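User: Structure please.
Assistant: Input sequence and predicted structure:
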Amino acid sequence: MAAEFVKLYPDNPQEKIIEKVSNTLKSGGVVIYPTDTVYAIGCDIFNSKAIEKVAQIKNMKAKEAEFSFICFDLSDISQYVKSLSTPQFKVMKKALPGPFTFILNSSSKVPKILGRKKKTVGIRVPDNNIPRQIVKSLGNPIITTSIIDEDEILEYSTDPELIYEKYQNQVDIIIDGGYGNNIASTIVNATTDSFEVIREGLGDISQYI
């Protein structure tokens, strides 16, 4: 059965559609959605079968995949990471919501979710109301991983209609939130207070340090 293709506006995402998406995630569905950077694919962090499906779509093994979590805000993060230092908290409070993935020391809850020992976890709070409202409605974070394009010029898929053509038989819902970016988030190692940039992306962390 083909995925449902729904339109949402980041400024004011329609509550009924957000609820439909979160209910789909609760029942083990996989969803493609926009972020403040590139389009991504994700599922409920507590559904192991859905996590395996996301990994399969990305041609990965679930236990080897480096998936990040999308959280609604900083208060959501505390369950999944070890306590933040004052410098870590200050920088993240200023930088989020924003185009960053912060790598943090994971709490004991994360290995149970992903099925293997993980010392670190990537945390995203994107500056886009669509994924954040989905997470808020769901009541917990979602797994997130970028949609890569095989195109030689564009690294990431930006057109939701083309994304639908490609993934309609692999996922349950695809959200059209307008054209996506072609630059991914900046990945920052925040396991210490040094904030080392692992991958340069859309965000400039030096503004917040």
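DSSP finds seven helices and ten strands in the chain.
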